[in-house]
Amino acid sequence: MSTAKIKEKSLARSTSVVSSATAFSRVLGLIREQVMAYFFGASMATDAFIMAFRVPNLLRDMFAEGALSAAFIPVFKERLVNRSEKEAFSLASILFTLIFLVVGLIVLLGIIAAPAIIFITANGFTENPEKFDLTVSLTRIMMVYLLLVSLSALVMGMLNSFGKFAIPALSAAMFNLGMVITVTIFLGFFQKPVYALAVGVLVGGVGQLAIQLPLLWKIGFRFKPIINIWDEGLRKVLKLVTPMIIGLSAGRINILISTFIASFLIEGSISYLNYSYRLMHFPMGVFAVALGTVTLPKVSEMAAKNDLRGLSRMFHEALSLNLFMLIPSAIFLAFYGNEIVEMIFQWGSFSKTDSEKTYMALLHYSYGLIGFATVRVIVPFYYAFKDSKTPMKISIIAVAVNILLYWPLTKLLNFAGLAAATSIGGLVNMALLVHYLPSKGIKIESSRVWLNTFRIVIAALLSCYIGKLVPFQFISQNLIVERIILFLVPVAVSVVSFLIFCYLFRVKEVNRIKNIFKRN
């Protein structure tokens, strides 16, 4: 497929495609969490699984969906634009071969060193030998997922570079679906039911890769094992990926420290933080991750053409869309978080006390959502200029701030203090990235950004307040229907109110969203 045939779409429209696919994936992700909460609650088993999955999951963020994908796309796109499709595919084959060798070795080492890894990262578990041994066994099973998701991320980067966003965005749905099916069908086949979750991770990882392969074949890629450490493109990718890994490592070390501290806190702390983080991550995945996914290939092409004016326009468009979606989402989580947790998780083994503690963590994750999401949108602009060192340095500073806040905030808020410190660190990261972006030649109209942000904040606060005032009572023998209705009525009022206020306050994104729906 020639690059000339790649259909160009507006940022908003492309983002809507990815957001729709990602929203479906995130809904399945919430169902996955519901299944886990229903069968296991916030227990020793869930703490063990979450801790065990955290190890390959953090490595995935560093080597796959985080660093590797972000480093690969600008170089791959540059070859497509300035050279030929054949040379771009050759680079891809070199990277596929490298992943098989390097990540395969990391997986093997992770399986062997699992006891040491859990001893270091969740030392509090050593007080309960059964919990420690269970976590080690689950870690060994799920380490293989790292190889599957690394290959999947590289395929996703290639497809995104060809303007193919929908199927790669749906790949996460296959992961969640694989877990849900495995747990619900095979739960009784295991002496320790939690092993069904670990096997589900592997089944989901296979599905995540497999769904993208037909489209990869369609664009013309044919894998050939190539070992060429002197390839110019590979050297560029490695030059980009090294500081990315260091920067992401700082953030991932921070998560491990957070988990380490949580392992000494009240039983279920890791589970409360995990469930609340998943809820916070839902709007971020639907909007910010989707927007960042679409933005990176587009700004990489503009950077290759040295189109600074286009990059400035793209920055304001991406930032405005991000703030329009994520500010009301953050305020919404703060206002309605308790109702959301009860509706989604308070079933089976998940008690009302579990809901209250999960909401406590969610409340302190909610304001961090704006920082986490905006970082996802801004970082691609640095990567487009092949600058991964600046985000790395800023990430390290933000993590240092985060870690310094752990002690005082956990003393004040217990496990919720870990969420609060993480959120503040995310906001610091965002502020520094925005501050240094003009050094790349991208002009930022600060007054325009601040005015737009102020309008969106006021509209979101007013709409959520109005939604909370709505008197509504629903009487039914069906508890599921009652919960859903009691939740959706005030939410619908809040959403409609928000759009009306944004229209009155002349927030331009309302018209953009309206035009997307008209075209679709």
Question: How would you sum up this structure, described in words?
Answer:
The chain folds into 2 domains: 12-444, no CATH class; 445-514, no CATH class. The relative contact order is 0.11. Helix content is 81%, strand content 0%. The two termini are 25 Å apart. It has helices at 11-40, 44-63, 67-82, 85-112, 114-121, 129-142, 145-161, 166-186, 195-210, 213-218, 232-262, 269-304, 308-345, 352-366, 368-384, 389-413, 416-436, 446-469, 479-504, 509-519. It is built from 20 helices and no strands.
What is this structure's SSE topology?
Blueprint: H1 11-40, H2 44-63, H3 67-82, H4 85-112, H5 114-121, H6 129-142, H7 145-161, H8 166-186, H9 195-210, H10 213-218, H11 232-262, H12 269-304, H13 308-345, H14 352-366, H15 368-384, H16 389-413, H17 416-436, H18 446-469, H19 479-504, H20 509-519
Helix pairs in contact: 1-8, 1-12, 1-13, 2-6, 2-7, 2-11, 2-12, 3-4, 3-7, 3-11, 3-12, 4-7, 5-6, 6-9, 7-9, 8-9, 11-16, 12-13, 12-14, 12-15, 13-14, 13-15, 13-18, 13-19, 14-17, 15-17, 16-17, 18-19
Descriptive keywords:
globular, 520 residues, mainly alpha, 2 domains, single chain, 20 helices, 81% helix, 0% strand
Strand content: under 5%
Low-confidence stretches: 1-8
Q: Could you state the order of secondary-structure elements as H and E?
A: HHHHHHHHHHHHHHHHHHHH
- The first-to-last residue Cα distance is 25 Å
